[in-house]
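Researcher: I've been going back and forth with a colleague about how Transcriptional regulator might be arranged in three dimensions. Neither of us has a model we trust, so I'd like an independent prediction. The organism is Dyadobacter beijingensis, in case that matters for your notes. Sequence below.
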Amino acid sequence: MSTATKPNHIGHKISRIRELRGLKQEFVAHELKVSQQTVSKIEQSETVDQELLEQIGKILGVPAEGIKNFSEDAVFNIIGNTVNNHDNGSLFNYFPTFNPIDKLVELFEENKKLYERLLESEREKVELLKNKQ
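Model: Here is an independent structure prediction for Transcriptional regulator. You can compare it with whatever you and your colleague have in mind.
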């Protein structure tokens, strides 16, 4: 009796990627607007509808094609070949899954809104002081 999973079991791949990303089924369920039990059933399914797979991919930060081609052995092989016991942090390349410039623009916009709220608050204070006199 073999406990090995079939190599193309999409549900197991989704489950493993979710676990590696440190996400819970409840989080995925919330993002998909379904129950946790539905996510559990998806992870037990050998196949998943392409549209649903793309939605799950967005939640996990992995393209649908990446889920289909996911290989846990390859992940651990990459980690084993790139991480060593020496403190050579410069050997570890960092490739974010987001666009850093987009994040910078988001922060700028948040800062701008905060400044505008602060300015409005100060204007209200000035107006109150004018009305007291």
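Researcher: What would you highlight for our discussion?
Model: I'd start with this: The mean pLDDT is 81. After that, consider the following. The first helix runs from residue 10 to 20.
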